Amino acid sequence: MSSLPVHRCECARCRAHKPYSDRAYHHHINLFLSCLNEPQRRWFAALEAMRIGHGGKQLLAEITGLAPMTIRRGCRELKAGLASCPGGSLHAPGGGRPVAEVRDPELESAVEHHR
Ligand SMILES: [Zn+2]
Asked: For a 10 Å CB count at each end of the chain, is N or C smaller?
């Protein structure tokens, strides 16, 4: 049922053909992305990029073949609660607006320290 061919990671380390601990992970990212629609792909890439932090968008662009601009757009949309995106009709029709961003300073600093 995978209609899309799975993108091959193009990050420098995977291309080096040396043992690399994240190679399987990069492949799994692309495998997963091949099952998603376009907005979902950029949201997942954006999520991963944000998790990695500095250089994350560039790396995710290399892994997924998505344009860095597309990933940046995904980040913006995620931060906006996926409120105004075309493929974002995940919320039930007429089901009201997404809850305003809830910020928990304690949790956020915990996440920061966890890196
Ligand atoms: Zn890779």
From this structure: N
How far away, in angstroms, is 4 Cα from ligand 1 center?
19
Domain ranges of the chain: 12-88+96-114
The pTM for the full model equals 0.69
Q: DSSP assignment of 36-78, as one string?
A: S-HHHHHHHHHHHHHHH-TTHHHHHHHHH---HHHHHHHHHHH
Q: What is the mean pLDDT of residues 69-83?
A: 94
Rg (CA), the chain: 16
How many CA atoms are closer than 13 Å to the CA of 47, on its beta-carbon side? 11
* 80 C-alpha to ligand 1 centroid (Å): 29
CA 98 to ligand 1 center in whole angstroms:
35
pLDDT above 70 coverage of the chain, percent: 69
